Amino acid sequence: MKKFFIYGGCVSRDTYELIKNENTLTHYIARQSLISAASKPEQRILTDSLPPNFNARMVKGDIQSSLFPKIIQKSKDIDIFLFDILSERLGVHRIHGGTYVTNSTELVSSKLLSNFEVPRTLIRFGSDRHFDIWSNSAMQLRDLLRSKNLLEKSYLIKANWTDSTIQGTATPRFRGLDAATANALYERYYTQLGLLGFKTIEPETNISLSDENHKWGPSQYHYQDDFYNKIIDELSNS
Question: What is the residue-level pLDDT of the chain in tens, covering all 238 positions?
C-alpha cells in the first residue's frame, strides 16, 4: 500500500480511482494551475459565501495557492506524487498586484469575480507569456519537491488529447480546440518538465483514446481503461 498525493486534472484522478482500494490518498488538489499554485495567495477575493462542496473547495484552494503549503504539510506521508498539467489549459487571471488565479469553470460559476473590482488580465494557455510564467512556477515546484526528497517519487502523466473514442465516435471539444492543436500547445510544457528532471509516463498514441462509457462521459482527456492501466503498470514497475 502506497500513499498518493494527486495534483492535476481528471487523468491523475481517474488513474488513482482504479487502484484506490490498494492504496491511500494523502491529498488531492485539482483546478489549480501551477502558476496560481506558485503565486502568493489572493486575499482580496472573499470566499466565505462558497458552499461546502468539492468544487468550492478547489476554487478556494486555488485562490489561496494551496499546493505548495500542502506538499510541505503532507511531505512525510507521500510515497508517490502523481500529477498532470491538464489544468493549464484553463489559463490564468493575473490580478493587479501580482497574484494569479486559475480561469476555471468552477471559478466562473462561483461568481466570485462578478463584483471584484480589482483589475485583472486573462493570460491564455499556450501564449509565450503563459509559458514563461509557468516555466518559473515549474522550477519552483521542482525545487520544493527536491527539498522534501520527493522529486524521485514524482511522476508526470503526459496525456495526449484525442478527438476519438474507441467506439469510433468524435469527442466533444474543449473550447473549440482539436486534439492536434492542443497537443502542439502542450509540447513545450512537457519538454520543460523533462528538462527539470521530472519522470514522465506517456501512454502510447494507439491507446490514448476516449470511451463513450467513461464514468464522466467521453472527452478529449477522458480515456479508455488501457490508457490508465499503462500508467498503473509504469508506477508498479518504478
Answer: 999 999 999 999 999 999 999 999 999 999 999 999 999 999 999 888 888 888 889 999 999 999 999 999 999 999 999 999 999 999 999 999 999 999 999 998 899 988 899 999 999 999 999 999 999 999 999 999 999 999 999 999 999 999 999 999 999 999 999 999 999 999 999 999 999 999 999 999 999 999 999 999 999 999 999 999 999 999 998 7
Tell which phi-psi region holds residue 209, choosing left (phi > 0), alpha (psi between -120 and 50) or beta.
beta
Residue pair 227/203 in contact (Cβ under 8 Å)? The answer is yes
Nearest to 92 by CA among 62, 67, 114, 68: 62
**Where does residue 43 fall: left (phi above 0), alpha (psi -120 to 50 degrees), or beta otherwise?**
alpha
Helices marked H in the chain: 10-17, 34-37, 54-63, 67-74, 105-110, 128-147, 179-195, 225-236
Question: What distance, in Å, lies between the first and last C-alpha atoms of the chain?
Answer: 14
CB neighbour burial string for 205-214, b if at least 16 within 10 angstroms, e if fewer: eebbbbbeeb
